[in-house]
Amino acid sequence: MATETDQQHAPEAGSESGFFTESRVELGKAVGFHALLWSLVAIVLFPVFWMIVVSVNQIAFDTFVSDPATWFSNASMSAYDQMVNETRFLTWFTNSAIVSVSATVVSIVVCLLGAYSIGRLRFRGRQTVATFLLITQMFPAILVAIPLFLVFRDIGLFNTLTGLVIAYVAFTLPFAIWMLRGFYENLPTSLEEAAMIDGCTRVGAVFRVIVPLSAPAIATTAIFTWVLAWNEFVFALVLINDPDKKTLPPGMSGWIGQYSLNWDLLMAGALGATLPMLVIFFFLQSYIVKGLSEGAVK
Predict the structure, then answer these.
(1) What is the pTM of this model?
(2) What string of H, E and C letters represents the secondary structure of the chain?
(3) pLDDT tens track for 35-74
């Protein structure tokens, strides 16, 4: 039988002894989590870092592994000076901004009613329309680029930014409708019913009640739509021939020569084209997270 003294010195049930105490285990979990998190951050941000390095020193591209010490040796801003003063980068940047913003605004205005109709109203053929919109996303852009070029040439929209905006709206609209449709389907129908009891029409209920409630989802859809239009290459290459009307993707592709390639100039342009997306995602990340979490994407 254990004595009273032995019972007093006996360890309590459930207590941990030795090296792996509860506090050390929790500390190890925290350290491991942060190590994994910052490793992923480094992997994601390394391409941006590498663009900056090569844009100020083209030698770094050739000494990526062999001599990392030369990455920042003889750094120069000559590539940025050449990009601004000797190329049409600023013109292409302006064209891309005009076309992508215009396409995004038109797509959002149209998809508000389109997504609401498919997601909220009950009519014959509703699911067929939704399926058709999904099917249009399965076709590669190059498949419809040539027929679109022939149509735009015949109606006078070839080589115009207006024609490119129309093409981008047709390209991004099904995607935008499908994003907003998932959000609208999760809203209770009592919202419109209460608004219409108070005297609103169906359209009034949509713009006074549904649209304000779906602001995060609309912002998320607008951002992803803008990114699609900003990065689009095929339509911009086929439908625009004038160098002064080109957008960034096909314009910068002309910097790639058959036998030579200025990596510093190309990386400087890539960084300039990426910067707007980084700024937008940084300042609007709260809307993206809120929109995604509330059902903008099912």
Answers:
(1) 0.78
(2) CCCHHHHHHCCCCCCCCCCCCHHHHHHHHHHHHHHHHHHHHHHHHHHHHHHHHHHHCCHHHHCCCCCHHHCCCCCCCHHHHHHHHCCCHHHHHHHHHHHHHHHHHHHHHHHHHHHHHHHHCCCCCHHHHHHHHHHHCCCCHHHHHHHHHHHHHHHCCCCCHHHHHHHHHHHHHHHHHHHHHHHHHCCCCHHHHHHHHCCCCHHHHHHHHHHHHCHHHHHHHHHHHHHHHHHCCHHHHHHCCCHHHCCHHHHHHCCECCCCECHHHHHHHHHHHHHHHHHHHHHCHHHHHHHHHCCCCC
(3) 998 999 889 888 888 888 888 887 776 666 566 666 777 7
